Amino acid sequence: MSKTILITGGTGMLGSHLTQLLLSNNHTIKYLSRTPGTKNGIQSYQWDVVTQTIDDQAFDNVDTIIHLAGAGIVDKKWTPKRKKEILESRTKSAQLIKSTLERIPHNVETFISASAIGYYGWDTGGVWKKEESRFGDDFLATVTKAWESEADEIEKLNIRVAKIRIGVILSKNGGALPELIKPIKFGFAAALGSGEQFMSWIHIEDLCRIFIHLIENKELSGVFNGVAPNPETNATMTKLAARALNRPYFLPNVPGFILRLILGQRASLVLGGSRVSSEKIEAQNFNFNFSNLQPALADLLS
After folding, report:
1. Are the beta carbons of 111 and 220 closer than 8 angstroms?
2. Which residues does 161 contact at the CB level (< 8 Å), separation at least 6?
3. Which residue ranges form the domains of the chain, and what is each CATH number?
4. Phi, psi for residue 234 in degrees, rounded to 5
5. How far is residue 139 CA from its own chain's centroid?
C-alpha cells in the first residue's frame, strides 16, 4: 500500500538511498529541510530546529515520518559547543515534530527514528549486545539515550514508534567505508589500535530494507538493532577490504595514542567497538541480503 512519507535528514547518505528505494516501491516522499524547494522531484518544506519553527504544510496527507536528522558525529572536533549541537540537533528536532503534531490536525500513524549502537557504550568488547542491554555512560551513549527518549514521547500521541540502532553503515557514497579504503588504495592497509574491537556493520541496502520492513509491518514497534548478523573485528574488516581491492596487508597496527592525538575524543569511534545482535529484527521475518562482510565488501568495492 502506497504511503506518504515525510523524511528529516533526507538528503544525507542514508536518506538519499532510502528515498530511492521508497520511490521504487511507489511511496510519495517529502522532506523537512532548512532550505525549502524542489530537488530531484522531492518537495522540501522548511523547518528550523534552533528557532523551533516549521512549515505545517509538510504534514499534509502524511501517514509516516522517518526521522534521520542530526549533526554529524565525526566531521568536527568535539568542543563543548559541538557536543551541545550533536545532542540538541537530535532531541530538539524530535520535540519540534511532537509539538507540531499536538498543534495541527494530521494523519500520522507511524514515527520511525534513527538511533545508534553507541547506546551500548563506546567499547563493550566481545559481549553480545541486544536491545534490552544496558546503555553506556559515555557521551554518545548519553546522546543516544536522550534521542530515543524524545522519540518515545511521540508514542503518547497514539502514534506507533520504532527506533533503529544503526551500526557502521557500509556505502559507496559516504560513511565509514570510503575513509577505511583511502589508505588501503595506496598500499597502507593497517588495523587501528588493537584491531580486536568489533565493528557491527551493515550494508546500506539492508539498513534501508529494515526501515521499509518497519513501515510495512504495523505490528512492529520499539527498538531494533540495525546491524548485520556477523560483526567483524577492525583487523578482519581491514584485511577483507584490502583483499577486495587487491592491495597488500602487512603494516603494523596504528597505535591508539596516535589516533587520540589526531582525533581527540573522537578516537573512541574507531578504537572502541561493540558486538551487536541482529536476532530481534530477524525474528520478525527480516532476511538480510548481506549477512557476511566479504560479499558485502565485494558488492560495494567491485
Report:
1. no
2. 110, 111, 112, 113, 151, 152, 154, 155, 221, 222
3. 4-301 (3.40.50.720)
4. -60, -40
5. 17
Residue 174 and residue 17 in contact, taking contact as beta carbons nearer than 8 Å: no
pLDDT tens figures, 235-283: 999 999 999 999 988 888 888 778 787 878 877 777 789 999 999 999 9
* The three cell numbers locating residue 123: 567499547
How far apart are the C-alpha atoms of 282 and 278, rounded to whole Å?
6
Length of the chain (residues): 302
Residue owning grid cell 565485494: 298
Torsion of CA 4, 13, 42, 36, to 10 degrees: 110
| Statement: the pTM of the whole predicted model exceeds 0.90 | yes
Q: Tell me how far apart the alpha carbons of residues 89 and 105 are, in angstroms, rounded to a whole number.
A: 25
Phi, psi of 108 (to 5 degrees): -70, 125
